[in-house]
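Note to self: user wants both folds in one dump. Writing first protein now.
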Amino acid sequence: MVAWSVVGLMVCVDAGTSAGASTPGASLSAAPVAAAQAAPPAAASARMSARTAALIANAEPAAAVPVVAAVAAVPTVPTVPTVPTVPPAPVTPTTAAPAPPPAPPPAAPSTTTPGPVWPTGSEAWLSIPSLHLSMPTFPGGQQVIDQGVATHWWAPGWLAPVAPGAPGTYWLAAHHVTHGAPFLNVPNIKIGAEIDVTVRGGTTYRYRVTSMETVGTSATYATVYGTDPAAARILLQTCLGTNYRLLVHGTLI
């Protein structure tokens, strides 16, 4: 690359520069140029070679031109941080959403009356709503009555006792004013009043009062059992003093 620059410059001066022109590194006089023009070709060639050699010898060395210029370092482009994607804005519905159905009201507390607590040995539960009377019943005779409970009565000389709701007379007896007075309010019962008898297992038999009568310390079968032994009946018995007994009759409904 350096040699090409020097040669090129020299060729340009020798071929195209007129007398009196100056070039870097040499001073040309008119006489040598004129002589060169008048000289024969061989002599001119010899003089040109000598002149070329003199110019080359006196010329300042050309600055070396680097083959490849240094390439300035290109700064590294910093990495652009990733921009988080912005979620799209929610679309507002053009029609309002229907209101949710109202919540159901809370369930009302149960009003079921707890069942009776059955005492040991009891067979049924007697309830007379009009008298606010409620108590268990026990099978037995006079000894059970004297314990102050309502007794499903039986004694020698009478018909065998029957179960609640069965054909025959379900006969209950209890003290009126002594031994705890379980039948204290029975004399206040009215005709048409309802009497409920619930057996173990939950079945309730309902009777309605049909009549009331007062007898002495004895009575006939017809008075106690009625005229139709197959009818399902109830009999409540209690004392009225020492000489009289109150009998309350009812039939199954």
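First done. Writing the second protein, which came from a different request thread.
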Amino acid sequence: MTTEATGQQKRGRKGQGKTLPGLYKRGNVWWIRYTGPDGRQRFETSRSTSRKGADALLILRKKQVMEGINPVAEHQLKSYLFTELADQYDAWAIRQRAYHTSKEILYHPPTCSLRSMCSQELDCADG
């Protein structure tokens, strides 16, 4: 017996049909889940309340992974050296009124990457 013959309605999602594996909804926004080229699970918001938009993004990401393109690489931050950012700050801060007091840390800056730096190294460089 089918549900049409009994006159009962199916419970659950109404009128949405089947979703692709890797799509789920959080609040009103659709999120996607896929396996990246490195084999790790990636979770990303589609920034869309429409399932069709999320479907398109999921298909695009899976296509990029199949082609060997890392979709997460465009979102990663560049690794800066402290001296690079210190030079940019120095160019900006020269027009500030208290420039002579803030310049002290730039005299002996550490030469390591900011990602590997801890606050103790800044204290040592200050002194």
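Dump finished. Worth passing along: The chain has a mean pLDDT of 75.
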